[in-house]
Amino acid sequence: MQREELQRIKEEALKELETLKDPIQLENFRVKFLGKKGKITQALRGLKELSLEERRELGSELNQLKEYLEFEIEKKRREILLSEEEKILDLDLTLPGRRPFLGGLHPLTQVIEEVCEVFTRLGFEIVTGPEIESEYYNFTALNIPEWHPARDMQATFYLQNGALLRTHTSPIQIRTMLERKPPLRIIAPGKVYRCDADVRHSPMFHQIEGLMVDGEVSFADLKGVLAYFAREIFGEKTKLRFRPSYFPFTEPSLEMDIGCVMCEGKGCRVCGQTGWIEILGAGMVHPEVFKAVNYDITQWQGFAFGLGIERITMLKYGIDDIRLFFDNHLYFLESFK
Ligand code: FA5
Asked: Which residues lie below 8 Å from residue 222, measured CB to CB, with a gap of 6+?
């Protein structure tokens, strides 16, 4: 990457920007310069081959150009929208005034609300817990002692004071059981964090934890509740399957997969060519977990589950890249209003 090359990209982008007239041209332009394989993205990647000083100088200029183009693309998008409206107004002056742009709920918020609604219908109460957790609640009380290899199943962000960003919503199980006496039925939505990123994995994502404890609760109850939830959210015809799995805090454990809607089960990059996407882990509460919260294991039984909200939303709306949820492009968000 040389200064002349940067200059060439800049001139080309600014010249082309002037000529854009419709949303398709605008999107092609965005992909050409700012997309994953776009010229600016590639140029930013190429910086690592330069000396520190050149990297600093060209990097800052490239980033400025990137921000400028992002701003201009959004501005153009609005101009195009307004000019379409004006064309209509030219034809009919009796039309009402221009309406302001209305915001809407983020698709993930919509799905969290929808899933919570399904479980509250079944008598589950909504609770929450902190995102900064101690190792005790996130791991130890869930039957994952320090030496246990299962700690590596969830690559963890540790804070300097020994605390951590919770890697799952399961610590809320412990907090709730310590505060309350059974019987109980709760669900707990929230953000969780893992050092993980690709088309299906995001370093921050959302889960909903579920926990039911009562005198007699069986594995069949768990499967029944999960199948009901899947039918309510995805419709009667959706394909689902249960697979045996392992979690230190449940025994026996399972994972539930939904047939991939992107390829209808044929196999694609989103489902890793398997035709299925895993959306949750679940199982019967492990006796060691009950012991950690002083519940009498001869008296109480329970099941727990943890749903991945991004995966559910991807399946529900046919979204093929998890990162779209967090880029916050208006054209993406507006399609969920
Ligand atoms: C857990 O987090 C367990 N706590 C779930 C659980 C709860 C099991 C209660 C038993 C009892 P897992 O790591 O598999 O399990 O994550 C659960 C779901 O979160 C996955 O099925 C997937 O849908 C979603 N998920 C996991 N990692 C990511 C990620 N990096 N990005 C987006 N979604 C993810």
From this structure: 254, 282, 283, 284, 303, 305
pLDDT tens digit sequence for 272-330: 889 998 999 999 999 999 999 999 999 999 999 999 999 999 888 888 888 899 988 88
Range of the domain at 81: 3-89
To test the pocket of ligand 1, the residue of 115, 247, 285, 305 to mutate (highest count of ligand atoms within 8 Å of its CB) is: 247
- Closest by CA position to 125, among listed 55, 178, 172: 172
Q: Which residues lie across from 256 on neighbouring strands?
A: 242, 280
Higher confidence at residue 251 or residue 77? Answer: 251
* Atom 30 of ligand 1, nearest CA residue: 201
pLDDT value at position 1?
58
Regarding whether 316 and 223 lie in a shared domain, the answer is yes
Residue 80, pLDDT score:
83
193 Cβ inside 6 Å of ligand 1:
no
Residues 168 and 231 in one domain: yes
Same-domain status, 246 and 172: yes
Ligand 1 atom at minimal distance to the Cα of residue 280: 21
Same domain flag for 44 and 127: no
CB of 202 shorter than 6 A to ligand 1: yes
Q: Is the CB of 247 under 6 A from ligand 1?
A: yes
